[in-house]
Amino acid sequence: MLAPAMDPRLLSFIVDRVNVGIFVVDREHRLVLWNRFMEVNSGWRAEEVLGRNLFDCFPELPRPWLQRKIQNVFILKNFSFTAWEQRPYLFPFRHNRPVTGGVDYMQQNCTFMPVKDEQGEVQFVCVTLFDVTDTSIYQQMLKEAGSRDGLTGIFNRRHLEQALIREFDRARRYGGALAFLLLDVDHFKHINDAHGHPAGDEVLRTVAQRVGDCLRSTDTLGRYGGEEFAVVLPETDLSGARVLGERLRLAVAREPVLLDQLPPIPVTVSIGISELRPELSGYERLIHEADTALYHSKTNGRNRVSCAV
After folding, report:
1. Number of domains in the chain
2. What is the bridge-based pairing of β-strands 305-307 and 269-275?
3. Quick check: pTM over 0.70?
């Protein structure tokens, strides 16, 4: 309720100056209020949209969902809320954050409020849009940080296994190929002993970069432990994974790792590969068979690719 002394012009000033999107619709979804925030971000002035149907003006809106949200407020006579985690945005407004944030549009929290008359009947629904883009970017950064290996910047073992479980279940349910690749840096202990642990760290970073440069966006590369890396390969059979394994092996060995005040460090890797088969009962079998194939590569001269039979 407004205090008796509240000037409507002051209320209008506040509505237009607040850094929140505010619009109001009636039961027919006609717009009866459109504040300055909405004008600036949508490119539509108030005089262009007031009195018109919301969905005629903005056909890109999620109409069935939004109609239900508005209708529920009219029926239940109560507030409703949706967060960006559930629906990233209502209006596809641009934002002014760096594109490196990984967010295409302004992320929005939305509140739906009933506007009642003196008898308590809902006459309009007021919708507010709060720009929470910064919050969503920061949360994504925290999430990414928690799933990354601190040394190499690629995914850690926990995230890698989650990806493998997800792809294993998907392939078992819907069909399709799936391969798993384990890769181990040859003679890594000797590199550490001969050149020091900082050199060993740089070798691991270089291997991760060279391997990552060869993969598709749908593949998942992670550090499995120590000098061991793994790759989840959706929609890839054993022969395709073998071809990729050879490409990775050659990419890593193509040139030595160069460090200041140290001689060039030659690097090779051994690789083991497994694939999903109907008789495999769980994703752990993929890991076990790839590990067995990797052991075969290690005991048969290293710098080679072996596949589980």
Report:
1. 2
2. parallel
3. no
